[in-house]
Amino acid sequence: xxxxxxxxxxxxxxxxxxxxxxxxxxxxxxxxxxxxxxxxxxxxxxxxxxxxxxxxxxxxxxxxxxxxxxxxxxxxxxxxxxxxxxxxxxxxxxxxxxxxxxxxxxxxxxxxxxxxxxxxxxxxxxxxxxxxxxxxxxxxxxxxxxxxxxxx
Length: 152
Fold this sequence. Notes:
By secondary structure, the chain is mainly beta. The chain has no helices and 14 strands. Strands 5, 6, 7, 8 and 9 form a 5-stranded antiparallel sheet that branches. A 5-stranded mixed sheet has the order 10-11-12-13-14, with no helix packed on it. Strands 1-2 form a two-stranded antiparallel sheet. The relative contact order is 0.14.
């Protein structure tokens, strides 16, 4: 686990699990320690990336953070359009050079039906699927319903 929300206070601690010894080590906090929950952390060759999540004040975040064992947490700046703030999404590293995030829930509890890819070199987001006009592929039209079905 990393930072998250407690029952009465904000947790901004970061813990690292050594997979060889199975020992947990607490890392020092920094000014950029993200106090978020309902998010995903994706490993990226010596670091970890975190996007979005539910913030300490119950708002949703749309920021990108990087954790490195030596430097701790830093906030990454990105270029161009970026995904909407969200929580409950999925994130994965693609080919060591791209971070993919998809789906999740917006601030109003609505489902987000999009997929975004960030090039880790240029720090530029690109929407590859979703309702945004900037997306490479648009959402398909909903199927026509046959109406109510009646069984004998």
